[in-house]
Design brief:
Layout: H1 2-14, E1 38-45, H2 64-72, E2 74-76, E3 79-80, H3 86-95, H4 124-130, E4 134-140, E5 168-172, E6 184-185, E7 188-189, E8 195-197, E9 214-216, H5 225-243, E10 249-258, H6 275-297, E11 304-310, H7 318-323, H8 341-344, E12 348-351, E13 363-365, E14 369-370, H9 374-381, H10 398-403, E15 411-415, E16 421-425, E17 428-431, E18 454-457, H11 473-488
Parallel strand pairs: 1-10, 1-11, 2-13, 3-14, 4-5, 4-10
Antiparallel strand pairs: 2-12, 5-6, 6-7, 8-9, 11-12, 15-16, 16-17, 17-18
Helix pairs in contact: 5-6
Length: about 500
Amino acid sequence: MRCRSAFNAIYLLLAWLPLFVGCSTLVGHPLQVVRAPNIVVILADDLGSGDLADTTARSLIPTPNLARIAAEGLRFTDAHSPSAVCTPTRYGLLTGRYAWRTHMRQGVLGGRSPALIETTRPTLPSILAAAGYRTSGAGKWHLGLQSSGPTDYSKPLVPGPTSAGFDRWWGIPASLDMAPYLYFEDARAVAQPTEKIQGSAQARKGGRGFWRGGAIAPGFRHEQVLPDTAARAVAEIERHHKLQPAEPMFLYVALSAPHTPWMPAKRFQTVEGAGVYGQFVAHVDAVVGEILDALDRTGMTDDTLLVFTSDNGAHWTASDRQQFEHRANGNWRGQKADIHEGGHRVPLLVRWPDRIGAPRRGESSDTLIGLTDLLPTLVAAAGIEVPAGAAPDGISFLPTIVAGADGLRESIVHHSLDGMFAVRQGPWKWIEGLGSGGFTAPKRIQPSDGPSGQLYHLEDDPGELNNLATTHAEVAERLQRQLDQVRLREAP
C-alpha cells in the first residue's frame, strides 16, 4: 500500500536521526530509543471533545492546563473511544482489544462485578512491566474484581489491577455513583463498606450530585475522591523519582470525573459558563495541572510521554444545551452512551518533549485513532515488541507522534451502551440500526419502509442529520460487509 511505503520511508529516515539508535524500518515495530521514556496516561471520565477551552468557540470552561499540554505537544481531533461508555473503553485501552469480543456486549460493570480482563491476556502495564517499567495506577478501576461475583471485599481482590500488570494500585472499584463506596490498595480494601448511605439527586436537579444508595466505608466522602486521586498520582511520581529514578515509570491516572456526582471543590464554584458541570471540569483541569507540576518539580517532564484522553463523550443532555451555550461534545451529535459522534469522539492530547520538536508543538492532527491504539503505540515508543496475540484491535500511531505521518488506521468500529455497532471509513459512517443506541431518545427505532440503518458523510454532514442509506446503498452495503468482517475476524 502507498501509505505503508510512506511510513516505512519515514522510519528509515528516523533510523539515522541521533534521537534514536537502531530504529526499526517496519511499521508497528518498536523504536530502540536511547532511554525508555516515562509514560503517563491520564484518562478523564465523561469529558467531552468540546470541553477543552481552546477547541471550539462554544467551549466556555477554562482549562489552562489542558491547553498547556496541547501547546507543548499534539492534539488529535479524530480520536475515538472503543465504546461510548466506560468499562468497555477501559478494557480496550489496557488490552488493545474491543470489549465486545468478551461476554460484555452491552452495558457496564457494577461495583461487585467479577474481573473482565482475562488473567492470561497481555495488557499495557504487564508488557511494560516485563520490560523493566515500574507500573502503578490511581483512580477508578471499573473493570471488575475477583473471578466471580458478587465481589467480597474482605478477601484479596484478585483478579484485579495487580493481576493485570500493575505493581501498585490505589483507587475506587467502579464509578463514583456506584456502591460500594470505598478505596482499595493493591489487592485489599482499605476499609470495609460496613455502613450505608442514601442516594443523592443530580446536581443539575438541585441535589448534592448523583450517586446510588448502598454500602460505604466509614469516612468515605465522595467529594474527596478527585483530590485524593490527584494526591496519589503526585505521590507516585515523587516516589518514583526518589526511589527508582533509573528505571522507567508507567503511571495510569484514571480520574473519576467529570462523571457524576458533580462535586467541584469550593474554589471552582465561581466558574461560569456551564453550571456545576463546568466547575467540575475546571477542577479536573486543575488536577491535571498538579500532575504536570509534579513532573516539572522532579525534572521528569522532558523524558515523559504523557497522554490525556477521556473514556467517552460528555453526559451533556439536550436540556443542558438549551440552558447553556457551552457545547461539551463540540458540534457533534449525541452524548455519552450514544452511537453518534458525541458518544465516542474524545479529546486526545500527547506531549513528549524529548521526541516532539519545537516546530511541531501545538499542531493538530486529523488522523483517525482509537484508544485501542494506545497499547501498541506506547509499547513501541518504549522500544518493546508487542507480544504475539496482544492488541489485536490496535494499530500504532507512533509515526504520527514522532514524524507527523498520517495514521495507518483506515477504519474503526464504534459501539454504544446498548450494543449498537457502527463502522467508520474515511468520511463515511455506517450505523447498524436506527436511533441513538444510548441515552438520547429514541434509543432504538424499528425499521419500517425505509433503511434499516444510518449512513452519514461526516465531512459534509458532521451533525449526522442527513441519512444517505437509501441514496448511497452501495456504500452502506460495503461498510456493512466490512463491519461483519471485523466482528468475525479471530482476535485472540
